[in-house]
Design a protein that fits this description.
The complex is a heterodimer of chains A (343) and B (328). Chain A is built from 10 helices and 6 strands. With 343 residues, chain A is of the alpha/beta class. Chain A has one domain: Rossmann fold. Chain A has a 6-stranded parallel beta sheet, sandwiched between helices. In chain A, strand 5, helix 7 and strand 6 form a beta-alpha-beta unit. Chain A is globular, with a radius of gyration of 20 Å. Chain A starts with 20 loop residues before the first helix and ends in a 23-residue tail after the last helix. Chain B is α/β, with parallel strands linked by helices. Chain B folds into 2 domains: 184 residues, Rossmann fold; 130 residues, Rossmann fold (3-Layer(aba) Sandwich). In chain B, 38% of the residues lie in helices and 22% in strands. Chain B is built from 11 helices and 14 strands. In chain B, helix 6 links the parallel strand 6 and strand 7. Chain B starts with a strand and ends with a helix. The chains are: A alpha/beta (343), B alpha/beta (328). Chains A and B meet through strand 2, helix 5 and helix 6 of A and helix 3 and helix 4 of B.
Chain lengths: 343, 328
């Protein structure tokens, strides 16, 4: 990319950049928007406008952004209940997301799923799953369909470190390896299951990477707080899957700045740990990265300002939306649209 | 068009083959189903006919089997997944109870899950408590799932076709003790309808509602009741628990005034309890006496043949119960 012709860049260090300015700006925009939207979700929860539960990805944005930019239209995302970031990273609207968290009619599923089941097929988000590990075999099935039909899309499944100790994880890894499926397993290791440190309950130090050898897979352990690292890792794995060369298991080291869910203050964490990780805040790291590559302050603040505007607008839209009409209580239990179980 | 005698086991093979011939989106996966032809020999020849890409042997990973079937279904295929023994549904029940069944509803209709879960259900084979259960009631209680349990070869083919073509997840309970039984099956493509019960024997004195292995036992009992006790029983094969053909059952009970259910599942929360409840709610004044459920007692099934035979409802037990209740 010729940096000299782009007003966003002050100097020319981008000329040898494998990622390129356009994708860098996209990686930054996604991280900023996810951060701002998650912070808003946090605030709305404490205002009692988000009911039920909410699991934030503040601190983990680089993983969603890195994969979101690397994945192409048609590539499918399978998320966990901590899925706000991945849903936004595929292009779903903030209105739809915040609307669903607030259980309003404007929500992605009109309030029928809630925060833990975000789905937007239009954006290739094939669901968010709230039973640990369940979606790993499901992603294998999607990849099997692509393999069987000769379709070129890749299925990417995101999960936390706690998932690596449940049976479905191991069944899915073996299954995908034996069938050479175009599926990518992405472990977001944020060091805690819910409240218990993953290291206290796991036989190996790196819960995903150290298990890769069991399934004949390469050991991949990367810095999950650097969007460039995640993006490059994602690219390699996606290309491998598209070449029909089988699955990858990637462990991304990261940290959630907030608690597990809802109002959890994360008191189980040792003093100083959060502060150390805040120094490695992915959004701050990437902001500085853009400056190092010569992106102007105006461009950066422009993205930040636009993000805040979008979050405010989405919040207003979601707040203004009524709850869905009560008629949907019994729609879509079965694929005929209804709920009839007898004549 | 001809008619040939076919075993229940061979009907499973023919039903699957019929649907795989029709639609190349129909794929089949499970443990030992391919090269080995299935532990009950109920999938022999499918691997040779349709090849390793459509008939896929899996590891002993029930969660992976049902999860992969679901992922394939929600992105465009029409998988048939085998869970060898229905008891094993317990190790992958998440996919039945939480995943497949909720997908369409939770996503507000964005995704659906046209999977058929075939499973060997029921007792009589002396396999003991973990390979003999009748678990149709486990699956019946979950909103979003459909549940079928055929009793004859022709129903196996027709209901298999209906299940594969259905847009929802269907649990297809094949009865292990029926695999060797035979029945007449017409040539050609057979497609039945989910949610339809069948009156197999007309009668005016009472209604006996049965499912799967209990159907031939109910028919045998009805013949004895007629020939030896002068009782003319109507026998209904429920066939499909969800959707449930309540109209056929209600119509029969309205006519006969008496209802007996014959259930292989252990007593608590068996499917007959739901039917009894519907009948009591809706046509109570048509009843001439109490509804009677004939079930396996609420015990794990023993392996010993004489004990298992004592536990499962038999034709003799049905005869005895119906006779004593009606003569009372």
């Amino acid at each position: 990319m010729a940096s000299g012709s782009n007003p966003a860049v002050q100097s020319a260090p981008l000329s040898n950049d494998d990622i390129g300015l356009e994708r860098r700006l996209e990686l930054f925009r996604l991280q900023v928007e996810i951060r701002d939207c998650e912070k808003r979700a946090h605030d709305l929860f404490f205002q009692n406008l988000i009911k039920g539960t909410s699991h934030l990805s503040i601190g983990q944005e680089a993983i969603a952004a890195g994969f979101g930019v690397a994945m192409q239209k048609g590539d499918k995302s399978f998320c966990t209940y901590r899925g706000h970031a991945h849903t936004l990273a595929r292009g779903a609207s903030m209105e739809g997301l915040l609307g669903e968290l607030m259980l309003r009619d404007v929500g992605l599923m009109r309030g029928k799923g809630g925060s833990m089941h975000l789905t937007s097929v239009e954006h290739d988000v094939y669901g968010s799953y709230a039973i640990i590990g369940a979606h790993l075999p499901i992603a294998c099935g999607s990849a099997w369909r692509a393999q069987y039909l000769g379709e070129k899309d890749v299925s990417v499944v995101f999960f936390g470190d706690g998932t690596t100790n449940i049976g479905a994880f191991h069944e899915a890894l073996n299954f995908a390896a034996v069938w050479k499926l175009p599926v990518i397993f992405v472990c977001e290791n944020n060091l805690y299951m819910e409240y218990t440190p993953i290291g206290d309950v796991t036989a190996v130090k790196h819960p995903a990477a150290d298990r890769a050898a069991s399934y004949g897979l390469e050991r991949i352990l990367v810095d999950g707080n650097d969007a460039d690292v995640v993006y490059r890792t994602a690219q390699v794995a996606i290309e491998k899957a598209r070449r029909c060369e089988g699955p990858s298991l990637i462990e991304c080291l990261t940290y959630r700045h907030s608690g597990h869910s809802r109002a959890d203050p994360g008191k189980y964490r040792p003093p100083g740990e959060l502060e150390e990780w805040l120094k490695r805040d992915p959004v701050i790291i990437y902001r500085q990265r853009l400056k190092d590559f010569g992106v102007t302050d105006d461009t950066i603040t422009g993205i930040e300002t636009e993000s805040k505007r979008k979050v405010d607008a989405a919040t207003a839209t979601a707040k203004a939306s009524p709850p869905a009409p009560v008629e949907i209580l019994t729609t879509d239990v079965y694929a005929d649209g209804g709920w009839a179980w007898r004549n | 068009m001809g008619v040939a005698e076919l075993s229940y086991r061979d009907a499973v093979i023919r039903g699957i083959a019929q649907e795989m011939d029709r639609d190349n989106r129909v794929v089949f996966l499970g443990e030992d189903i391919g090269k080995a032809g299935g532990v009950f020999k109920s999938t022999v020849g499918l691997y040779e006919k349709f090849g390793p890409l459509r008939v896929r042997d899996t590891p002993i990973s029930e969660q992976a089997i049902l999860g992969a079937a679901m992922g394939a279904a929600m992105t465009g295929l029409r998988p048939i997944a085998e869970i060898m023994f229905s008891d094993f549904l317990a190790v992958c029940f998440d996919y039945v109870a939480n995943e497949m069944s909720k997908l369409h509803y939770m996503t507000n209709g964005q995704l659906s899950c046209p999977v058929v879960i075939r499973t060997g259900n029921g007792g009589g084979a002396r396999f003991g408590a973990q390979h003999s259960q009748s678990v149709e009631n486990w699956t019946m209680m979950i909103p979003g799932v459909k549940v079928v349990a055929p009793s004859s070869p022709v129903d196996v083919i027709g209901l298999m076709a209906a299940a594969v073509r259905d847009p929802d997840p269907v649990v297809f309970h094949e009865h292990k003790s029926l695999y060797a039984t035979k029945g007449e099956v017409p040539d050609g493509v057979i497609v039945d309808t989910l949610g339809t019960a069948k009156i197999l024997r007309a009668g005016g004195d009472c209604t006996i509602v049965a499912l799967a292995l209990m159907v031939p036992r109910a028919l045998e009992a009805a013949a004895t009741l007629a020939s030896e006790h002068g009782i003319d029983a109507e026998v209904i094969d429920v066939r499909s628990l969800v959707p449930l053909d309540t109209q056929t059952i209600l119509g029969s009970v309205s006519k006969t005034g008496r209802l007996f259910t014959v259930e292989e599942n252990p007593r608590l929360c068996g499917w007959g309890a739901e039917i009894a409840s519907i009948v009591a709610d809706e046509i109570f004044w048509d009843l001439d006496g109490p509804i009677v459920r004939i079930t396996t007692p609420h015990i794990p099934l023993p392996a010993a043949d004489h004990l298992e035979d004592l536990a499962l409802p038999s034709a003799a037990r049905i005869v005895d119960k119906v006779r004593r209740v009606l003569k009372a």
